[in-house]
UniProtKB/TrEMBL annotation:
It comes from Sunxiuqinia elliptica. The lineage of its organism: Bacteria, Pseudomonadati, Bacteroidota, Bacteroidia, Marinilabiliales. The keyword Transcription regulation applies. SMART domains: HTH_ARAC. Pfam families: DJ-1_PfpI (PF01965), HTH_18 (PF12833). Residues 221-319 form the HTH araC/xylS-type domain. Keywords: DNA-binding, Transcription, Transcription regulation. This is Transcriptional regulator GlxA family, contains an amidase domain and an AraC-type DNA-binding HTH domain. InterPro entries: Class_I_gatase-like, DJ-1/PfpI, Homeodomain-like_sf, HTH_AraC, INH-QAR. GO terms for molecular function: DNA-binding transcription factor activity; sequence-specific DNA binding.
Amino acid sequence: MKHVSILIPNGHYSLVNVEGTYQIFSWVNDYLSQTNQEPLFELHLVGQSQKVTQTNGLFTITPDVLLDDVSATDLIVVPAIHGDLDENLKNNSDLVPWVLKHHEGGAEVVGLCIGAFFLAAIGLLDGKPCSTHWQFANKFRELFPKVHLMDHKIMTESDGIYTSGGAYSFTNLLIYLVEKYGGRDLAVLASKAFMIDIDRSSQSPFIIFSGQKAHQDQLVLDVQEFIEQHFETKISIDELAREFNIGRRTLERRFKRATSNTIVEYAQRVKIEAAKKELELGTTTVSETMYHVGYADTKAFRDVFRRFAGMSPVDYRNKYVRELSSYSE
């Protein structure tokens, strides 16, 4: 039986992460008990004090054990902690040595959604793959360049460290852990009970690209604006360099440093985001959309679309148009 420590941090923690983890793992235990099998998880809510209230005052959790009560654990679950990272680390200073000590002692560690920021800040993710909410990917790359961020992934695993993508994708990681510890059949049953799409590996279809503009390089901001206003036409890097009176290499270097994308990648992402929005309306064919966003080569469009959206243009259109229309039937 796995001893599971679900941490209750100080600050504005994700109640959904905490309750969802407890609920799914408890369901597994209940199912096993009903079928005359031993439970899989020994679940504990672990806190730094007897009561932990979110900073917004809406919810209070009473941990059943405190940090010092846990002599050994097999799995540590760190929920998303919202707000300023430095403030969160300060408010949870007791958690840092506790997590590191138990990880060194063999415990596996799970960071849910932006809980990955906490794991990265205490050094557990250096040199490792990691996922987090796609909305905070650029900030994560800026803060933790030693971490191999894979923001398109629903989950990552490396040397006993697990991370999940954004929001409710943490449930996919929980199902993965059920399979790892309890087997495929049990994981399938749990996924059906909670209606979780098992084996989903990408959060790319859910990413909304709104430009990487949280930087102070005004020239790069102007170039980004220019690309977004002319996305339907083909613009070379040399043309951009002439338009903004700057050397090509200097422009490429500054653009990559500011946005974490090359100019070509940025232009592709702008085009694909425009294509996704058009396909979601269901009023044009894939070919029409392809031409509207500046592509003439079907294969090139399909390959780039799949790279950034995680599925083909046809599948994307069918997914969202069908799902929207089904609610009105």
